[in-house]
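agent> Task received from the user: take the single chain below, predict its 3D structure, and emit structure tokens. No templates, no multimer pairing.
agent> Plan: (1) validate residues, (2) run structure prediction, (3) serialize to tokens, (4) report one or two observations.
agent> Step 1 OK, no nonstandard residues flagged.
tool_call: predict_structure(input=
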Amino acid sequence: MDQNILDYQQQDGVLRRIENELQNSEERKRAAAAKSFLLEGEEVIAKTDKKAGDLLVKFQNLQHTLAECVQMSEEYEALMKESKEDEDELSYLNKKIQQLNDTLKKTEHELTVISQQMEETAKNFVAYRQKFGAAKEEYTKNKKKYDELKAAKAGEIKAVKEKMAGIAKGVDKKILERYQAVRNDKIFPVLVPLNGNMCGGCNTELSLNEMGRLKNQGYIECDNCKRIIYQK
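)
tool_result: status=success, residues=232
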């Protein structure tokens, strides 16, 4: 295996270490968690706002129904006073008044339930708004810290990338393209030495045919872990 590509991987390992430090930093994790909450929070707030609007419409409709029932009940009671001697009419009016009373009780109960739901929704909305504000502050604070951390590492990253670019000029184009394809699949190290008759990355045993190709070509790709196996 050409030493240039091995040197390239060595510098790539340095770059990967720096990238992992940034990726796994507490500042990035906290900023990412806060951002996720904010994105979800916008949807939650929109749904809560819609729920509050729907409850208000139901509440207003029930109030209208309640007012109508009260008015009709008063009208039936007035009619009863006028129909004192008509038993059939009185019986009919009594029945209608009873139905109205049942509707009134049901409507009042529904109004109580919806009032409680409206109160609970309002409390949840206020509580979530407070959490949303806190998450916004948390995101802003940690995003700033993460950006500062990245800026502090920028010079080091640039130097490593420049070194890799210089080494890449002396690497066979075909092996470099294959290396980068494997690296893009988040596999590292990409290049591993033969370990006896096994892949130095995943310890999968190579067939006689694969061993022959490795000897003739200088490197082969592991069928199991996709790393590039080379012979020292």
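agent> Step 4: summary for the user.
Helices lie at 3-23, 26-82, 87-168, 173-184, 208-217.
agent> Done.
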